[in-house]
Design brief:
The chain is α+β, with helices and mostly antiparallel strands. The protein has helices at residues 39-51, 101-118, and strands at 2-15, 18-23, 26-32, 55-56, 62-64, 72-77, 122-124, 131-147, 157-162. Strands 1, 2, 3, 6, 7, 8 and 9 form a 7-stranded mixed β-sheet that branches.
Length: 164
Amino acid sequence: MIGLIQRVSNARVDVEGETIAKIGYGLLAFIAVEKHDTEKEVDKLLKRMLGYRILTDKAGKMNWGLKDTRCELLLVPQFTLAAMHTQKKGLRPSFDEAALPEKGLQLFNYLYEQAVKVHGHVQKGCFGADMQVTLTNDGPATFVLQAEPDEGGDSGVKAKRRRK
């Protein structure tokens, strides 16, 4: 499971000209469900997203995670992220690692439900819809988190920083 998270001043999702989700200061998370993912990977990614210290304290330092604040979270399904680790040559992305739509919807909804239970201040985009996402990236601060099945004692969540 992949989460591309961005610290935002505000963000919203529109579908067919109507705003369906909107947040102020917090995190916008684009979520890709991969074919090997289970609820276990969802739980790992959510824990990491809520604790990832990229929100600024009063001194302007990245010291707070969502779990430390009342800041908001906007979850947006984006299966195209599953193509980011493709090793194939050429100019066409491969979505071989993306989950089938039924599984993707089920695990995305599970992520949303769990996020609401533990954080409360959560909005979501519409799975499978043609969405227009508008955001003001704060920083910019953008990070990629990936939850993978356990291999030994590893926590299974990797973090990679993306710079604009």
